[in-house]
């Protein structure tokens, strides 16, 4: 999209505003779709998300003014908010509790596959300036997703949801509940280096002149993420979520630290491997953790608020780190990111469970989750 916007004559500042508008739609609608998931059902919200994914690229084809493109981009953000929240809740509903981690891990394999295949196809078409074809492929993929979502079975849990107002849970209740607020805070802290990696790594590689393809960095990370997601879930059902979340945070922190000190091609290869392994484990395991700690009729709201922590970190990272990039350099950005990821380890190690003793035991796989509800 940035290359297309540049091709139609939009300046860099306006491009930044248009791209950033996606986060506005995403973050602003997460709590709303979370409530809809719990009160109207998972399938309806899936249909909303896939419909928006099919419609939004039409706007990119025919709209050329910056304000309208910002509106379309914010509208597009609704698709991710709706789809990811409803999809996660639906997978948890369908998964037997004893296999929840395994099934969440396997179903989340769609993420690295999409991130690996989509940019490859888009990059090939972009080289030939086939921008309209890119958007039409996006429209077709969204339409196919809409048709597939419409054929999904409605789980029985959705039919029997209790809509009593006394059972509703507010965002404030979620965030102030340590069982749920701590995972949200962990994702917020990780969101900053996550956003920095996806924004600044290509520029960082170029500035170092190490002859490394930035696309290869993301491909290696996607492969590592895929590998982690395919095997970790079932182990978490056996040994608990804590040991894998703690391990993923350590792995992710090490990956960001590699970036902070990178000076060769191999540095970026190791950083990509560690970042992929860390994020590929952390995200599905956190979804499993907060699902364990929430009731079925509140799960959509809980997932939406907790995942918003990651969304917010990613959204804030680009403008904040961009503002200080000239002063601290790219290595400085990733040094700060390392410190934030390391602080996420400390938060989870100290407050990840009922008290310090249980938290440390939970992180080492020696204690179960005291906060688990089902």
TrEMBL record:
The chain crosses the membrane at residues 15-33, 45-63, 75-96, 103-122, 134-153, 174-195, 215-232, 244-262, 268-290, 302-324, 330-351. Residues 1-355 form the Major facilitator superfamily (MFS) profile domain. CDD domains: MFS_YfcJ_like. Its main location: membrane. SUPFAM superfamilies: MFS general substrate transporter. It comes from the Bacteria. It is found in: Cell membrane. It is a multi-pass membrane protein. GO terms for cellular component: plasma membrane. Keywords: Membrane, Transmembrane, Transmembrane helix. Pfam families: MFS_1. One of its GO terms (molecular function) is transmembrane transporter activity. InterPro entries: MFS, MFS_dom, MFS_Exporter, MFS_trans_sf. This is MFS transporter. It comes from Chamaesiphon polymorphus CCALA 037.
């Amino acid at each position: 999209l940035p290359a297309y916007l540049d091709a139609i004559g939009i300046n860099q500042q306006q491009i930044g505003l248009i791209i950033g508008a996606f986060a506005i739609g995403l973050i602003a609608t997460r709590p709303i779709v979370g409530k809809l998931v719990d009160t109207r059902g998972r399938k309806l919200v899936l249909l909303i998300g896939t419909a928006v994914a099919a419609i939004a690229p039409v706007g990119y084809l025919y709209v050329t003014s910056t304000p309208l493109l910002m509106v379309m981009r914010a509208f597009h953000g609704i698709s991710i908010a709706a789809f990811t929240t409803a999809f996660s809740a639906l997978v948890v509903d369908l998964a037997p509790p004893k296999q929840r981690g395994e099934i969440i891990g396997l179903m989340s394999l769609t993420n690295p596959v999409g991130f690996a295949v989509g940019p490859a196809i888009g990059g090939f078409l972009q080289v030939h300036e086939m921008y309209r074809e890119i958007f039409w492929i996006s429209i077709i993929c969204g339409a196919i997703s809409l048709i597939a979502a419409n054929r999904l079975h409605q789980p029985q849990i959705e039919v029997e949801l209790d809509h009593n107002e006394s059972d509703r849970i507010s965002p404030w209740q979620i965030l102030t509940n340590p069982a749920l607020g701590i995972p949200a805070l962990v994702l917020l802290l990780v969101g900053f280096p996550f956003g920095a990696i996806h924004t600044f790594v290509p520029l960082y590689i170029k500035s170092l002149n190490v002859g490394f393809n930035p696309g290869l960095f993301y491909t290696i990370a996607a492969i590592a993420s895929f590998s982690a997601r395919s095997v970790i879930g079932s182990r978490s059902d056996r040994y608990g979520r804590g040991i894998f979340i703690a391990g993923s945070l350590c792995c992710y922190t090490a990956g960001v630290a590699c970036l902070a000190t990178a000076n060769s091609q191999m540095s970026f290869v190791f950083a990509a491997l560690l970042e992929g392994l860390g994020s590929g484990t952390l995200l599905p395991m956190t979804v499993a953790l907060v699902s364990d700690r929430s009731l079925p009729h509140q799960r959509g709201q809980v997932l939406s608020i907790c995942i918003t922590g990651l969304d917010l970190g990613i959204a804030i990272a680009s403008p904040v780190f961009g503002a200080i990039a000239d002063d601290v350099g790219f290595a400085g950005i990733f040094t700060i990111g390392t410190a934030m990821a390391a602080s996420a380890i400390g938060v989870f190690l100290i407050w990840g469970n009922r008290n310090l003793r249980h938290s440390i035991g939970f992180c080492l796989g020696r204690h179960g989750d005291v906060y688990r509800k089902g």
